[in-house]
């Protein structure tokens, strides 16, 4: 039997930016302490970060050249450094880092999440089910005579997806949702702390965690947990949906299309699937990252 599946993806995508401001107008060369103030607009755990606080690694390299050697051991590392979203209090940096007394030597500071001490500029990342929200703050720099005043800003590097399901009239109540799979997902393996470049795994199927025997209701509800994967090249996201009525399994192949040229980093697509006897409609919104829309249809 052919079933027409219509997909409408509404996404809400707000970039999580964390601004850690430098010293404001304090150029006293007698005070060598490096100070950063934190102000985060939108959170911690190995999950999507949207509110609260999280523990990042902040590191500094000293160099008289325009770019430090990130493969070398950092001059200092502050880990953990707690970042509180929405706070403007000073960051508490471990080891009390200071500027070099030589004004020709700059301190280059960058930060990242999840925490880790770099080895030749690389931080390993363990993401087995898309549970890690990788964030990176580009390098800022200053010296004793020209202290840091620009913000240290964290950005999401991955694309987030979460799934919401509902039923409409005509859907067989015996049919329960068994799984939702992103067909071609790549997970982060490592981060280069000098460039913010992520190395990813090869494309593979990613089953959304914690979905089994989900009974559908007319009230939309989130199923499984949000996942964060590599940004998707192209505007089509292939999905496989499996249902079961207790005696027979049904598999649906779905293509969700966004108005964006690609599924972008820093966007959190909340994909809603509505099941009925003739079609499944899909919409997506993005929670605390940014916004966009998408639509499409397939015949099953």
Kindly describe this structure.
- It is a single chain.
- With 300 residues, this protein is mainly β.
- It folds into two domains: 4-14 and 159-299, Sandwich (Immunoglobulin-like), CATH 2.60.40.2630; 18-156.
- It is 0% helix and 48% strand.
- It contains no helices and 20 strands.
- It has strands at 4-14, 18-21, 37-40, 53-63, 76-84, 106-113, 122-124, 135-142, 152-156, 159-167, 176-185, 188-192, 198-200, 204-207, 221-229, 236-244, 249-257, 268-275, 280-285, 290-299.
- The strands form five sheets. A seven-stranded antiparallel beta sheet has the order 3-2-9-8-6-4-5, with no helix packed on it. Strands 15-10-18-19 form a four-stranded mixed beta sheet, with no helix packed on it. A four-stranded antiparallel beta sheet has the order 14-11-16-17, with no helix packed on it.
- Strand 16 (236-244) and strand 17 (249-257) form a beta hairpin.
- The radius of gyration is 23 Å and the shape is elongated.
- The protein starts with a strand and ends with a strand.
In brief, what are we looking at here?
This protein has strands at residues 4-14, 18-21, 37-40, 53-63, 76-84, 106-113, 122-124, 135-142, 152-156, 159-167, 176-185, 188-192, 198-200, 204-207, 221-229, 236-244, 249-257, 268-275, 280-285, 290-299. With 300 residues, the chain is an all-beta fold.
- Overall pLDDT: 79
Reading the helices and strands in chain order gives EEEEEEEEEEEEEEEEEEEE
Strand residue percentage: over 45%
Task: Note poorly predicted spans.
Answer: 1-21, 37-46, 291-300
Tell me the domain tally.
2
User: What is the rounded distance between the termini?
Assistant: 8 Å
Share of residues in helices: under 10%
Total helical elements: 0
CATH fold category name of the largest domain: Immunoglobulin-like
CATH class of the largest domain: Mainly Beta
Q: How much is the radius of gyration in Å? A: 23 Å
Alpha-beta classification = mainly beta
- Corresponding CATH architecture of the largest domain: Sandwich
Major beta-sheet overview: 7 strands, antiparallel
Main sheet: which strands, in order across?
3-2-9-8-6-4-5
